[in-house]
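To whoever is on call:

I kicked off a structure prediction for a single chain this morning and the downstream step that reads the tokens threw a length-mismatch warning. I double-checked the sequence; it's 136 residues and nothing unusual in it as far as I can see. Pasting both halves so you can look.
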Amino acid sequence: MKVKLSDIIDALMSANQDSEYFLDKKTGSIEWVSDMAMTESEQQAVYDRLDAHGFYHLPTQYEIRDYDIMEDFTDTLSGSAHEKLASALRGRGAFRRFKDTVHHLGIAEQWYAFQDEAYRRKAVEWCEENEIDYEG
């Protein structure tokens, strides 16, 4: 089975506290289960199908650690841009302040390219750790 790396990346980027993503071992498709958007019976149907086929559990948002990605990006900068983003990352509301500061500094394109590459690396690493062939 060969999976599309872009499908893995999309699932990682969509991860949140109310949902889980799985890779179906038989079909190679990404399966989504959401506590907020699905009924219990809909969730159970997906779980039953995955149990029958076998599956891999994709990393959760907590395993992805977006905060670390933001810190890593901040560390690539110097001067006032570094200081402003480092300050934005402190305390409650760090994600919103970080995003606002990135846009205010005019480096949003640079941030999104960095973030995309970080997710790509995480997807490749996950595939390799699980011995999954991928393309793209």
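Update from on-call: the warning came from a stale cache, not from the record. Cleared it. Sanity check on the structure: The first strand starts at residue 2 and ends at 4.
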